Amino acid sequence: MPSPDIDGQQRGYVIPIGGAEEKDNNPVILKKIVELAGGDNAVICVIPTASQLDDTGERYQKLFTELGAGTTHSLPIAERSDAQKQEYLDLLESCTAVFITGGNQLRLSTILGGTPIAKAIRKLNARGVHIAGTSAGAAIVSQHMITGGSTGIVPTEDGVNLAPGMGLINTVVVDQHFNQRNRLSRLLSAVSYNPFLIGIGLDEDTAAFIDGNNEFTVVGSGAITVVDPSDIEYSSMAEAYTGDALTLLNLKVHILASGGRYNISDRQAFIK
Questions:
Q1: 184, 203 Cβ separation under 8 angstroms
Q2: In a domain, 193, yes or no
Q3: What is the DSSP letter of 118?
Q4: Average pLDDT per 10 consecutive residues for the chain, totaling 272 residues
Q5: Catalytic residue among 21, 74, 109, 177
Q6: Is 0.90 topped by the overall pTM?
Q7: How many domains does the chain have?
Protein backbone atom coordinates (compact mmCIF):
# COMPACT_ATOMS: atom_id res chain seq x y z
CA MET A 1 0.00 0.00 0.00
CA PRO A 2 1.20 3.55 -0.69
CA SER A 3 0.92 5.10 2.77
CA PRO A 4 1.09 3.21 6.07
CA ASP A 5 -2.21 1.50 6.89
CA ILE A 6 -4.31 2.97 9.67
CA ASP A 7 -7.21 0.77 10.77
CA GLY A 8 -10.59 2.29 10.01
CA GLN A 9 -9.16 5.17 7.97
CA GLN A 10 -9.74 5.83 4.27
CA ARG A 11 -6.56 7.02 2.59
CA GLY A 12 -6.75 10.47 1.05
CA TYR A 13 -6.57 11.02 -2.69
CA VAL A 14 -3.18 11.07 -4.37
CA ILE A 15 -3.36 13.52 -7.30
CA PRO A 16 -0.45 13.71 -9.75
CA ILE A 17 -0.88 16.48 -12.35
CA GLY A 18 1.00 16.61 -15.65
CA GLY A 19 2.05 20.25 -15.21
CA ALA A 20 0.84 23.50 -16.81
CA GLU A 21 -2.60 23.04 -15.25
CA GLU A 22 -5.14 25.67 -16.29
CA LYS A 23 -5.21 28.45 -13.70
CA ASP A 24 -7.44 31.13 -15.23
CA ASN A 25 -10.13 30.22 -17.77
CA ASN A 26 -11.39 26.85 -16.54
CA PRO A 27 -9.19 25.53 -13.70
CA VAL A 28 -11.10 22.26 -13.28
CA ILE A 29 -8.22 20.41 -11.61
CA LEU A 30 -7.49 23.05 -8.98
CA LYS A 31 -11.24 23.50 -8.36
CA LYS A 32 -11.67 19.79 -7.74
CA ILE A 33 -8.78 19.79 -5.27
CA VAL A 34 -10.43 22.62 -3.33
CA GLU A 35 -13.77 20.77 -3.34
CA LEU A 36 -12.20 17.53 -2.09
CA ALA A 37 -10.32 19.45 0.59
CA GLY A 38 -13.54 20.90 1.98
CA GLY A 39 -14.37 24.06 0.04
CA ASP A 40 -14.58 27.00 2.39
CA ASN A 41 -13.45 24.69 5.18
CA ALA A 42 -10.37 23.59 3.23
CA VAL A 43 -6.93 24.14 4.70
CA ILE A 44 -4.36 23.76 1.91
CA CYS A 45 -0.61 23.72 2.52
CA VAL A 46 1.52 24.56 -0.52
CA ILE A 47 5.07 23.18 -0.69
CA PRO A 48 7.03 25.17 -3.34
CA THR A 49 10.38 23.43 -2.72
CA ALA A 50 10.86 22.24 -6.32
CA SER A 51 10.65 25.81 -7.62
CA GLN A 52 13.41 28.38 -7.27
CA LEU A 53 11.02 31.26 -7.84
CA ASP A 54 10.34 33.21 -4.65
CA ASP A 55 6.66 33.82 -5.37
CA THR A 56 5.55 30.29 -6.35
CA GLY A 57 4.00 29.46 -2.99
CA GLU A 58 2.18 32.79 -2.77
CA ARG A 59 0.80 32.42 -6.31
CA TYR A 60 -0.77 29.06 -5.50
CA GLN A 61 -2.10 30.40 -2.20
CA LYS A 62 -3.84 33.17 -4.14
CA LEU A 63 -5.22 30.71 -6.70
CA PHE A 64 -6.67 28.36 -4.07
CA THR A 65 -8.14 31.28 -2.12
CA GLU A 66 -9.83 32.65 -5.26
CA LEU A 67 -11.27 29.16 -5.89
CA GLY A 68 -12.91 29.13 -2.47
CA ALA A 69 -10.42 27.50 -0.10
CA GLY A 70 -10.92 28.67 3.46
CA THR A 71 -7.27 28.79 4.54
CA THR A 72 -3.98 28.46 2.69
CA HIS A 73 -0.39 28.26 3.88
CA SER A 74 2.92 28.21 2.02
CA LEU A 75 5.82 26.29 3.55
CA PRO A 76 9.01 27.84 2.07
CA ILE A 77 11.21 24.78 2.53
CA ALA A 78 14.40 25.67 0.67
CA GLU A 79 16.93 23.42 2.47
CA ARG A 80 16.88 20.29 4.60
CA SER A 81 16.98 22.20 7.88
CA ASP A 82 13.68 23.85 6.93
CA ALA A 83 12.08 20.40 6.66
CA GLN A 84 12.74 19.88 10.39
CA LYS A 85 10.88 23.00 11.56
CA GLN A 86 8.12 22.34 14.07
CA GLU A 87 6.10 25.33 12.87
CA TYR A 88 5.80 23.74 9.42
CA LEU A 89 4.91 20.36 10.89
CA ASP A 90 2.18 22.03 12.96
CA LEU A 91 0.74 23.70 9.86
CA LEU A 92 0.71 20.36 8.04
CA GLU A 93 -1.19 18.78 10.92
CA SER A 94 -3.98 21.32 10.41
CA CYS A 95 -4.35 20.83 6.65
CA THR A 96 -6.93 18.94 4.62
CA ALA A 97 -4.80 18.93 1.45
CA VAL A 98 -1.14 19.35 0.51
CA PHE A 99 -0.10 20.76 -2.87
CA ILE A 100 3.48 20.21 -4.11
CA THR A 101 4.45 22.59 -6.89
CA GLY A 102 6.49 22.02 -10.03
CA GLY A 103 10.15 22.72 -10.66
CA ASN A 104 13.03 20.28 -10.25
CA GLN A 105 12.13 16.89 -8.76
CA LEU A 106 15.70 16.32 -7.58
CA ARG A 107 15.36 19.45 -5.44
CA LEU A 108 12.32 17.81 -3.91
CA SER A 109 13.97 14.47 -3.25
CA THR A 110 17.28 15.83 -1.99
CA ILE A 111 15.67 18.42 0.30
CA LEU A 112 12.61 16.49 1.54
CA GLY A 113 13.74 12.86 1.36
CA GLY A 114 13.78 11.18 4.78
CA THR A 115 12.85 14.35 6.67
CA PRO A 116 10.06 14.84 9.23
CA ILE A 117 8.09 16.75 6.56
CA ALA A 118 8.20 13.81 4.12
CA LYS A 119 7.22 11.36 6.85
CA ALA A 120 4.37 13.63 7.95
CA ILE A 121 3.00 13.81 4.39
CA ARG A 122 2.82 10.01 4.19
CA LYS A 123 1.08 9.76 7.56
CA LEU A 124 -1.36 12.53 6.67
CA ASN A 125 -2.30 10.79 3.44
CA ALA A 126 -2.96 7.57 5.37
CA ARG A 127 -5.27 9.57 7.68
CA GLY A 128 -7.32 10.96 4.80
CA VAL A 129 -5.50 14.14 3.77
CA HIS A 130 -5.29 14.61 -0.01
CA ILE A 131 -1.82 15.00 -1.56
CA ALA A 132 -1.56 16.70 -4.97
CA GLY A 133 1.51 17.54 -6.99
CA THR A 134 2.09 19.15 -10.37
CA SER A 135 4.98 18.40 -12.75
CA ALA A 136 7.94 17.67 -10.42
CA GLY A 137 5.41 17.40 -7.61
CA ALA A 138 3.65 14.66 -9.59
CA ALA A 139 6.82 12.69 -10.28
CA ILE A 140 7.73 12.41 -6.61
CA VAL A 141 4.46 10.81 -5.44
CA SER A 142 5.56 7.40 -6.74
CA GLN A 143 8.12 5.16 -5.09
CA HIS A 144 10.23 5.09 -8.27
CA MET A 145 10.65 8.67 -9.54
CA ILE A 146 11.68 9.54 -13.10
CA THR A 147 14.32 12.27 -13.03
CA GLY A 148 15.28 12.36 -16.71
CA GLY A 149 15.78 10.33 -19.86
CA SER A 150 15.39 10.14 -23.62
CA THR A 151 12.64 11.64 -25.73
CA GLY A 152 10.92 9.82 -28.57
CA ILE A 153 9.02 6.57 -28.94
CA VAL A 154 11.55 3.71 -28.88
CA PRO A 155 12.80 2.68 -25.40
CA THR A 156 16.53 2.12 -24.87
CA GLU A 157 18.73 0.45 -22.28
CA ASP A 158 19.79 3.84 -20.88
CA GLY A 159 16.56 5.64 -21.71
CA VAL A 160 15.51 6.69 -18.21
CA ASN A 161 17.02 7.94 -14.97
CA LEU A 162 15.30 6.95 -11.73
CA ALA A 163 15.60 7.97 -8.09
CA PRO A 164 13.57 7.17 -4.95
CA GLY A 165 10.37 9.17 -4.63
CA MET A 166 8.00 9.71 -1.74
CA GLY A 167 6.28 6.35 -2.11
CA LEU A 168 2.65 7.44 -1.81
CA ILE A 169 1.97 5.02 -4.66
CA ASN A 170 4.32 2.06 -5.03
CA THR A 171 2.89 0.20 -8.04
CA VAL A 172 3.17 2.99 -10.60
CA VAL A 173 5.85 5.21 -12.09
CA VAL A 174 4.67 8.67 -13.15
CA ASP A 175 5.86 10.92 -15.96
CA GLN A 176 4.56 14.41 -16.73
CA HIS A 177 4.36 16.89 -19.65
CA PHE A 178 3.96 13.58 -21.42
CA ASN A 179 2.82 14.16 -25.01
CA GLN A 180 3.98 17.77 -25.03
CA ARG A 181 7.60 16.64 -24.44
CA ASN A 182 7.45 13.30 -26.30
CA ARG A 183 8.29 11.14 -23.27
CA LEU A 184 6.90 7.72 -24.24
CA SER A 185 10.36 6.19 -24.66
CA ARG A 186 11.47 6.94 -21.12
CA LEU A 187 8.25 5.63 -19.60
CA LEU A 188 8.60 2.41 -21.62
CA SER A 189 12.22 2.16 -20.49
CA ALA A 190 11.11 2.51 -16.86
CA VAL A 191 8.47 -0.23 -16.96
CA SER A 192 10.81 -2.56 -18.87
CA TYR A 193 12.92 -3.03 -15.72
CA ASN A 194 10.13 -4.85 -13.87
CA PRO A 195 6.54 -5.64 -14.95
CA PHE A 196 5.39 -4.92 -11.39
CA LEU A 197 5.33 -1.24 -12.36
CA ILE A 198 2.50 0.44 -14.27
CA GLY A 199 3.54 3.50 -16.27
CA ILE A 200 1.33 6.58 -16.07
CA GLY A 201 2.09 9.37 -18.55
CA LEU A 202 0.27 12.60 -17.72
CA ASP A 203 -0.39 15.23 -20.37
CA GLU A 204 -0.28 18.86 -19.33
CA ASP A 205 -3.46 20.20 -17.68
CA THR A 206 -4.41 16.60 -16.88
CA ALA A 207 -4.55 14.81 -13.53
CA ALA A 208 -5.14 11.35 -12.11
CA PHE A 209 -7.35 11.54 -9.02
CA ILE A 210 -6.33 8.29 -7.31
CA ASP A 211 -8.75 7.30 -4.55
CA GLY A 212 -8.24 5.11 -1.49
CA ASN A 213 -9.21 2.01 -3.47
CA ASN A 214 -6.37 2.56 -5.96
CA GLU A 215 -8.71 3.60 -8.77
CA PHE A 216 -8.15 6.87 -10.59
CA THR A 217 -10.33 9.16 -12.67
CA VAL A 218 -8.89 11.39 -15.39
CA VAL A 219 -9.61 15.11 -15.00
CA GLY A 220 -8.44 17.84 -17.38
CA SER A 221 -8.10 18.76 -21.03
CA GLY A 222 -5.56 16.13 -22.11
CA ALA A 223 -5.16 12.39 -21.67
CA ILE A 224 -3.31 9.86 -19.55
CA THR A 225 -1.29 7.11 -21.21
CA VAL A 226 -1.24 3.92 -19.13
CA VAL A 227 1.45 1.34 -19.93
CA ASP A 228 0.72 -2.05 -18.35
CA PRO A 229 3.56 -4.59 -18.76
CA SER A 230 2.03 -7.27 -16.53
CA ASP A 231 1.48 -9.67 -19.46
CA ILE A 232 4.80 -8.93 -21.13
CA GLU A 233 6.24 -11.98 -22.89
CA TYR A 234 9.77 -10.72 -23.42
CA SER A 235 12.03 -7.77 -22.60
CA SER A 236 15.55 -7.46 -23.98
CA MET A 237 16.63 -5.12 -21.16
CA ALA A 238 18.84 -7.72 -19.44
CA GLU A 239 20.83 -8.41 -22.63
CA ALA A 240 20.94 -4.87 -24.02
CA TYR A 241 24.09 -2.74 -24.15
CA THR A 242 24.17 0.97 -23.37
CA GLY A 243 22.14 2.87 -25.93
CA ASP A 244 20.55 -0.23 -27.50
CA ALA A 245 16.93 -0.10 -28.56
CA LEU A 246 14.76 -2.52 -26.57
CA THR A 247 12.44 -5.28 -27.72
CA LEU A 248 9.25 -5.44 -25.61
CA LEU A 249 6.58 -7.97 -26.55
CA ASN A 250 2.90 -7.89 -25.57
CA LEU A 251 2.69 -4.59 -23.75
CA LYS A 252 -0.78 -3.26 -23.03
CA VAL A 253 -1.41 0.48 -23.54
CA HIS A 254 -4.52 2.53 -22.67
CA ILE A 255 -5.22 6.15 -23.61
CA LEU A 256 -7.72 7.69 -21.20
CA ALA A 257 -9.26 11.14 -21.70
CA SER A 258 -11.32 13.11 -19.19
CA GLY A 259 -13.73 10.87 -17.28
CA GLY A 260 -11.82 7.69 -18.07
CA ARG A 261 -11.00 5.45 -15.10
CA TYR A 262 -8.35 2.90 -14.28
CA ASN A 263 -8.09 0.45 -11.39
CA ILE A 264 -4.41 0.11 -10.49
CA SER A 265 -4.90 -2.99 -8.33
CA ASP A 266 -6.92 -4.90 -10.96
CA ARG A 267 -5.15 -3.29 -13.94
CA GLN A 268 -8.49 -2.63 -15.62
CA ALA A 269 -9.51 0.44 -17.64
CA PHE A 270 -13.07 1.77 -17.83
CA ILE A 271 -14.96 4.48 -19.68
CA LYS A 272 -17.33 6.86 -17.92
A1: no
A2: yes
A3: H
A4: 63 98 97 98 98 96 98 98 98 98 97 98 97 98 96 97 96 98 98 94 98 97 97 95 97 98 97 82
A5: 177
A6: yes
A7: 1
The amino acid that residue 109 corresponds to is S
Residue 9 lies in a domain: no
Separation of alpha carbons 160 and 16, rounded Å: 19
Half-sphere exposure of 252 (CA within 13 A, CB side): 11
DSSP state letter for 25: S
The enclosing domain of 204 has a CATH number of 3.40.50.880
What is the spatial distance between Cα 248 and Cα 153, in angstroms, rounded to a whole number? 12
177 counts as catalytic: yes
Question: Is 150 in the active site?
Answer: no
Helix (H, G, I), strand (E, B) or coil at 141: coil
Amino acid at 11: R
**To the nearest 10°, the Cα dihedral for 177, 92, 12, 72?**
-70
**Catalytic entry in 74, 135, 150, 235:** 135
